[in-house]
Specification:
Elements lengths: L10 E3 L2 E3 L1 H39 L7 H12 L11 H16 L9 E2 L4 E6 L3 E6 L2 E5 L13 E2 L7 E2 L1 E2 L13 H6 L10 E5 L7 H5 L7 E12 L4 E11 L5 E10 L25 H19 L2 H27 L1 H7 L1 H38 L10 H26 L1 H5 L3 H38 L10 H19 L4 H8 L18 H19 L3 E2 L9 E2 L10 H20 L2 E4 L2 H7 L6 H15 L21 H7 L14 H13 L8 E3 L5 E3 L16 H21 L3 E2 L9 E2 L10 H20 L3 E4 L5
Length: 795
């Protein structure tokens, strides 16, 4: 074994025994790493200052409340898909009329925007040529636009109007795509242009757009048309610049290109508001010395702010930061060499990209400032009285495109500037590891995107050639690819679960309790009384909510055709109410409950097992004594007569004849007693009523049975829930048997209803009606001296 020098010293570093030289290397590496970390975090602090300046400058991006402005002028700018469909010349005339009525005449306009100038309507035409159809056979034709074939001769209005439309130059370049990104410019065909001239009119100078239609202003000669208008909100100082370019292909196909933006013009941000003050003759008191000093300082600062725009100072500060970053990256590139600099670290490429975008952003800010100045001159010309048909739209178009370019660069620059923060955090071990994992995932994702795009490109080419470019969706390979991606997007949305209520609504199949084998016996005679009472309860609730009778249902105006006495309801509605009441009684029996009465009550009333003939004779006597009446007792006294005055019409409706010479039909004693109870238990006069009939002279005042003094035992609350749920199932099954289906909104014509869902998905408000009906039904039975007991209970 080798001997070890006893003089050699050992050092302990973090629990590890090391020699002096190794320890020195570890210490140097640790110190170097700490220095680099400190340097990175210092750079991070400086970069945070840069981000603060950048976003402070972007905060004045010349747009304010654009989505508010969209709500007001959305129909004019056509920014929403499907808002403006222009496929024929008639559609162009209709859209022109819409612009004129809204912008010029302000029809149905409640917003406080004002138009700046008029509404320019311009078209570009081509000359008529002679084209060969066949040998010796020629026909007039109208070619694609080119400066050589552009028509410039004056147009004379047809149909004897003698209106003259002159061709003017200097109206600004007319192009369907006024703004293209760098990618579009690099990879796609150049933008088509229709020159700087054309035939222009101001729609606000016309009495109506029909004049242009009569003059055949648009014809086969037309190859392009354009609308231009400018609106201003005088309070928010937001300008809405709208421009619609319509191109007409020689085949007759029409394309519509809508361009609009809501911008703030530099130099026109502050509204000059004038207020009228009353002079009360009082001499203002002289302010104190310190107040005058503060006012003087404030005035001085205001003058400084106006003399030196803060936005300009922020822009200068960003330029200084930009120059500093450029010097730093150039120094590092010269030190490392261009090849090593670009190939050593991905962050270096990211730095260069950031600098390029930042340079473009700063330059476009200057461009927008200059466009605002030019637009101010355009406004001055309009103020002098020159018409929009005479002026060039170049200034407004430059402002529009400048804002769009500035917005795009601002969004891209802000995203890249924030992502650059990762560079300064990579010295953190955890974040650096996370970044490496994200880098590997990004590499896999890029490979997938390449394969995915190649597959879609192949299918796009196949689709274009398979359909012969005959359909608009397959007119170009680019269009096919865009359509395929939209299909994928819609497919993704189909994979997402619908909201539970909507999903259950489409799959809902109501299954009420099967009560077909339940025999009610004498209890069945309660169905009609309960049905009438339920109708009065429903009508009373509707009236309390502000509803009134109407021949057609109207949820907005709160009109309902069923707010009439029960006897005037349709056969279907009466059958529905009767079926619901019978099902409620059957459900109580099916749920293992019994409906009974005490013996002394039964003998006293003579209701359950008295002979039918006895009941019939008694009711016949009552009917003969009272005489015929059309007043419906069960409807709750809907007429002016007292609800306790006449029973004959009720018995006649239920089967007992009251006319002389007509044999009396038997009325079961339970039904007689139920009607007598209802007659004696109606609510007092109610302030809620509605009128119906011819001239609305008939009065319907629903008066259901008064059960306010009846207390529902707690043991029956569970039965209330069961009855409410089953009542909903019965209602849903009845509706579906009639052809109704689920729909997010009620539509009587299409038979759609939002409540055709399982009971558990109903809201509390939607459940309230069924629960109240169940409670009132049980209270009514208890008030009629019935006892409801659970047969499964020992008590």
């Amino acid at each position: 074994m080798w001997t070890k020098d006893s003089t050699e010293t050992m050092h302990v570093y973090r629990g590890i025994h090391m020699e002096k030289k190794k320890l020195d290397l570890v210490s140097v590496a640790s110190e170097y790493k700490e220095i680099k970390r400190r340097q990175f975090y210092q750079e991070l602090v400086v970069y945070v200052v840069f981000l603060t300046l950048l976003f402070s400058l972007l905060s004045w991006l010349p747009v304010q409340d654009s989505f508010h402005q969209n709500d007001v002028v959305g129909a004019l700018t056509c920014r929403e898909e499907g808002e403006c469909e222009i496929k024929t010349f008639a559609d162009i005339y209709d859209f022109a009329g819409k612009l004129r009525d809204t912008v010029c005449e302000r029809q149905d306009v409640t917003a406080q925007w004002v138009r700046v100038g008029g509404v320019g309507f311009r078209q570009v035409r081509v000359k008529e040529l002679r084209c060969r159809v066949y040998d010796g056979w020629e026909a007039p034709c109208y070619p694609f636009y080119s400066p050589e074939v552009e028509q410039k001769t004056p147009l004379l209005g047809e149909n004897g109007t003698d209106r003259l439309y002159k061709w003017r130059d200097g109206l600004g370049e007319l192009s369907p795509e006024i703004y293209r990104s760098f990618v579009d410019w690099l990879f796609f065909a150049p933008v088509s242009s229709y020159g700087t001239g054309g035939y222009a009119v101001d729609l606000c100078d016309l009495e109506e757009v029909e004049e242009l239609r009569l003059d055949y202003f648009l014809s086969e000669h037309t190859r392009a048309a354009a609308f231009k208008f400018i609106l201003l909100n005088p309070i928010t100082r937001v300008f809405t610049i709208g421009m619609h370019v319509i191109t007409v292909d020689p085949s007759g196909h029409i394309d519509h290109f809508a361009h609009s933006s809501h911008v703030r013009v530099i130099g026109h941000e502050k509204p000059e508001q004038f207020t009228i003050t009353e002079d009360n003759g009082d001499i203002p008191s002289k302010p104190q010395l310190h107040r005058r000093i503060f006012d003087a300082v404030g005035s001085s600062m205001s003058l400084v702010r106006e003399a030196f725009d803060v936005r300009v100072l922020l822009w200068v500060a960003l330029v200084l930061f930009f120059i500093t970053y450029c010097i730093g990256e150039a120094t590092e590139m010269m030190t490392m060499g261009a090849t090593t600099y670009l190939g050593s670290d991905m962050w270096n490429l990211f730095e260069l990209t950031h600098l390029v975008i930042l340079a473009a952003l700063l330059s476009y800010m200057v461009h927008y400032y200059m466009a605002s100045s030019t637009f101010a001159l355009h406004l001055a010309e309009l103020r002098e009285g020159r018409g929009v048909e005479e002026l060039s739209h170049t200034s407004s178009q430059e402002l529009l495109t400048g804002f769009q370019q500035l917005s795009d660069l601002a969004s891209l620059g802000s995203a890249i500037s924030l992502l650059k923060v990762f560079k300064f955090l990579r010295m953190n071990a955890t974040l650096n590891l996370l970044w490496r994992v994200l880098g590997m995932a990004m590499s896999d994702l890029m490979g997938f995107l390449v394969i995915f795009n190649l597959i879609f490109l192949g299918y796009s080419a196949m689709g274009s050639y398979a359909f012969g470019f005959a359909l608009e969706e397959y007119s170009t390979i680019t269009e096919v690819r865009r359509e395929a991606l939209q299909v994928m997007y819609r497919f993704r949305k189909c994979l997402i679960d619908m909201p539970s209520r909507e999903k259950e609504g489409h799959n809902y199949r109501p299954k009420p309790v099967d009560t077909s084998k339940v025999e009610l016996g004498h209890l069945e005679h309660l169905g009609d009384v309960l049905a009438r009472n339920c109708h009065d309860m429903w009508a009373l609730e509707r009236l309390k909510q502000g509803w009134q009778y109407g021949e057609e249902r109207d949820d907005k105006k709160k009109r309902h055709p069923n707010l009439v006495p029960y006897k005037l309801l349709s056969v279907e509605e009466q059958a529905f109410d009767y079926r619901s009441s019978i099902e409620t009684i059957k459900t109580i029996v099916f749920m293992n409950y019994t409906i009974t009465r005490a013996n002394h009550q039964r003998s006293h009333s003579g209701s359950f097992h008295d002979s039918v003939s006895r009941s019939a004779s008694m009711m016949s006597d009552i009917a003969d004594g009272l005489g015929g009446s059309n007043s419906s007792l069960i409807s709750g006294g809907s007429d002016s007569t007292s609800p306790r005055a006449n029973d004959a019409a009720v018995f006649e409706e239920l089967g007992t004849a009251s006319h002389p010479g007509t044999p009396a039909k038997p009325v079961p004693s339970l039904l007689r007693e139920a009607m007598s109870f209802r007659r004696n238990s109606l609510m007092g006069d109610s302030p809620y009523f509605t009128t119906y009939g011819e001239g609305n002279v008939e009065v319907y005042r629903p008066l259901p049975i008064d059960t306010t003094t009846v207390e529902l035992p707690p043991r029956l609350l569970r039965l209330v829930d069961l009855l409410a749920e089953n009542a909903h199932e019965v209602w849903a099954k009845g509706r579906m048997d009639e052809g109704w289906t689920y729909g997010p909104q009620r539509d009587d014509s299409a038979k759609k209803h939002p409540c055709l869902v399982p009971y558990v998905f109903l809201t509390d408000d939607e459940k309230e009606y069924d629960i109240n009906i169940a409670k009132e039904t049980l209270k009514t039975l208890i008030a009629m001296k019935f006892t409801i007991l659970d047969r499964s209970s020992k008590y």
